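sry for the spam today, last one i promise. struct tokens for design, 310 residues
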């Protein structure tokens, strides 16, 4: 009996030692359970309040009071950041107000946070609508594709998807045409530039040629002036009686003298024929004067006959 008691005691002792950590674990689990329950209650309360704000915002939308609706949706998001209904409806409010940029941001946020396929479908569908209004057809095609992946039965989404594809195709063709036009304009501009460069080069060559011709003309003028001055100098020497070829001129003079007939020189004590001729002319003139004088005196002594005597 003693051994059994000892064993019991030992078991009891060992049992006490084993029970200590078990009690601590139980206390910690109870505490965590209490904290988790409080957190769950807080989340539930936040969700309830967020839903109430969303409900209030929906009523304001019906009244077309978009400013008040925006405030209610913002309250809902502040209570529960992941409240997809509040985010989606806030994006819809911006869309109705015409703020497409903010609306697109909120709808993309709602699509990323949504776990329900219906919510994702609505978000992507409206994202596509906004992109179509912004003329972003290629991006709108992808948005409608995502909407159809979450709800393939929506005919409106499928119809908008077809419009977006057609719009994207037209834009792509237009971009290709614009690229071709730009390439053509680039080639034309290059051709014009090359032509202008050629014209400028021709003009420069012509200027250089003109300058060269002008220089040649100046040199020729100087040469002509020098030749003219030289000729004038030669002429002046001729006029002064000092020609360069005076010996030749003198020889020519001698030749002329030789060609003229030589007059016979009068001998000493005799008159030359010219002197005889001059003497005869002087005698004739003297005789003529005497005759004229005699005729004048004869006329002075005669009586002039008149028709009637006085």
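last one done:
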């Amino acid at each position: 009996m003693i051994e059994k008691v000892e064993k019991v005691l030992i078991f009891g002792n060992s049992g006490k030692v084993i029970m200590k950590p078990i009690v601590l674990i139980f206390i910690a689990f109870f505490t965590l359970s209490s904290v988790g329950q409080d957190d769950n209650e807080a989340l539930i309360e936040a969700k309830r309040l967020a839903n109430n704000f969303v409900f209030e915002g929906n009523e304001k939308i019906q009244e077309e009071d978009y400013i008040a609706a925006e405030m209610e949706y913002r309250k809902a998001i502040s209570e529960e950041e992941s409240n997809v209904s509040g985010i989606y409806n806030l994006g819809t409010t911006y869309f109705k107000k015409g703020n497409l940029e903010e609306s697109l941001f909120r709808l993309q946020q709602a699509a990323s946070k949504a776990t329900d396929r219906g919510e994702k479908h609505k978000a992507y569908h409206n994202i596509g609508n906004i992109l179509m209004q912004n003329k972003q057809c290629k991006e709108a095609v992808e948005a409608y594709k995502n909407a159809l992946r979450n709800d393939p039965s929506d005919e409106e989404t499928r119809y908008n998807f077809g419009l977006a594809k057609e719009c994207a195709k037209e834009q792509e063709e237009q971009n290709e045409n614009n690229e071709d036009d730009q390439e053509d304009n680039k080639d034309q501009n290059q051709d014009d530039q090359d032509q202008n460069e050629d014209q400028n080069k021709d003009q420069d060559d012509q200027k250089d040629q003109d300058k060269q011709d002008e220089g040649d003309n100046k040199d020729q003028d100087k040469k002509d002036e020098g030749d003219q001055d030289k000729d004038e100098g030669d002429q002046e020497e001729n006029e002064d009686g000092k020609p360069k070829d005076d010996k030749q001129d003198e020889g020519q003079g001698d030749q002329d003298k030789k060609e003229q007939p030589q007059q016979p020189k009068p001998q000493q004590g005799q008159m030359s024929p010219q002197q005889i001729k001059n003497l005869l002319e002087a005698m004739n003139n003297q005789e003529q004067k005497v005759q004229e004088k005699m005729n004048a005196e004869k006329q002075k002594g005669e009586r002039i006959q008149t028709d009637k005597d006085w």
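Residues 1-20, 302-310 have pLDDT under 50 and may be disordered. ok im logging off now
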